[in-house]
Specification:
By secondary structure, this protein is mainly alpha-helical. It has 5 helices and no strands.
C-alpha cells in the first residue's frame, strides 16, 4: 500500500468525524424531540451509515492514486480503529462518561445499533471501491 493513499484516506476520516458530530446533533435536537430517544437511535445509525458510504464513494472517486481490494480492507480497518479509539478516548476522558455507559452502545440486544455503524465503517471503503471501479 502506498503510504500517501493511507494518509489521504485518514484525512477523509476527519470528514467522517464531522459527519458523526452533525448526525449526533441532528439526532439530539430533531429526532429525539420528534420520535423519542429509542426510535432516534436506529434512525441516526442509518443516516450515519449512509453518510459513511457516501464519503467513502466520493473519496475513492477523487483518489489521487491507484488502489486495490487489499488497500481498501486496510483503509476500512484503519477507519474502524481510529473511530473506536476516538470514541472511547474522547467520550471517556473529555466527556467523562464511564466505561459501562460507553459499552452500553454496543448492546444490540437492547436496541443499540452503534455496532452496525462500526461494521459499515469497516466495510465502506471496500464496498464503495467495488462500486467505483
Amino acid at each position: 500500500m502506498d503510504i500517501t493513499f493511507l494518509v489521504y484516506t485518514l484525512g477523509f476520516w476527519i470528514l467522517l468525524a464531522v459527519c458523526a458530530i452533525v448526525n449526533g446533533m441532528f439526532r439530539q435536537y430533531v429526532l429525539v424531540r420528534r420520535i423519542g430517544q429509542e426510535a432516534a437511535r436506529p434512525v441516526s445509525s442509518l443516516t450515519l451509515s449512509l453518510m459513511i458510504l457516501a464519503v467513502a464513494y466520493v473519496m475513492l472517486c477523487v483518489a489521487p492514486s491507484d488502489y486495490d481490494g487489499t488497500d481498501l480492507w486496510i483503509v476500512g480497518a484503519a477507519w474502524l480503529s481510529v473511530t473506536v479509539l476516538f470514541e472511547f478516548g474522547f467520550a471517556h476522558f473529555v466527556m467523562k462518561r464511564t466505561w459501562s455507559v460507553l459499552l452500553e452502545d454496543y448492546n444490540i440486544l437492547k436496541g443499540r445499533t452503534w455496532s452496525v455503524v462500526l461494521v459499515v465503517t469497516a466495510l465502506a471503503p471496500y464496498l464503495m471501491g467495488s462500486a467505483v471501479k
